[in-house]
Structures are given as C-alpha cells and as structure tokens.
Amino acid sequence: MAQDPLPGPARITSLHLAARVGEPTFHVTQAHAVAGRGLAGDRNYWAGEGPRPRRRGAGRASGVCDVTLIEAEALDALAREHGITLTPAECRRNLVCRDIRLNPLVDREFRIGTVILRGLKLSEPCARLEHLVRPGLIRGLLHRGGLRAEVIRGGTIRVGDRILPLAGPATVPDGTPHITSPHARVSG
Question: Which has more confidence, 179 or 142?
Fold first, then answer.
C-alpha cells in the first residue's frame, strides 16, 4: 500500500555527483539540472546528440535516469535495523531528502526549488551498489533504496531546497498526460 508523503518541510539535506560510473560521489552545495539530460557534471548526465533515448540498454541501464533520490530516514533505518551506517555520499544517490516519502512519487511530478522532476521508478539496491559500498545493502534498502527521476524543467537544485509534490497526473515533455495504467482513461 502506498504511503502519502510526510507532512512538513520536506527538504534536500545533501547533494552528490560522481564524475564517472563507479567513481565515488562527492558533495556539492548545488547542481544544475537540465531537462531531459540530468545533473551537469554527474555520471548519469546525457551529453549525447538530441534527446536522451527512452531506453539505453538492458537491466539496470534501461530507461531514463536523470537524478536519483533517497530518504535520509531510510539511511537512519539501515543503521538502526541492520547496523550499516552510510554517509550520504556512500549511498550513491544524487539527492538525500528528509521528511518526504519517495515511493509515492513514482509517476508523479514534484518540484525541488524551481526544478520540476517526474518520479519514474524505485531505485532498488543492486549487487553493484553492494559491491561498491558494503555487504548487506540489498536486504537493508529493499523497497526503500530511493527513486529514479527525470528532469522535466531545469534549473538549479541547492541543499536546503524544499520538495513539493505537484497535484495531478504526470505529463510527458510535450505536455500530454503520462498514462500509468493500462486501465486509465483520458477524457476530453
């Protein structure tokens, strides 16, 4: 059952980039989000010609992933329940958030500062993450490993920015509704 975002001032508490896949992430105080491309300077940034392909490969590499987010509360629970303490940089997500549940943001748009993102799917922990960081992460972060998101409207994201879920269905970049269920109907 999906849970609603927590009430209160949901905020970005930490912001991280990695120059290349597999390299350690480093802390920054702000990052430039580019629609359809990601965070400038990050390993997931699409620097290719034209728009980012909707699918890039098989497995973990499939689909769009401009930005990754995780709840600080998930990291707190990982330490409390499994004895695994991770710094925000070690979790390998771009944005660490507090006071918001990310799972309900799948297929929803939300604002961070002036940037608009769309939640795409959960960012479940994988064997690569466990290998890069430490054993036990898959079990400890299952279903709370964060969210993969796409940048819909770019701008600057800063540590301390508020996170606000937006009302209504998510839209694709051309403005049409994003249909998330085969049973959903579009009226009009």
Answer: 142
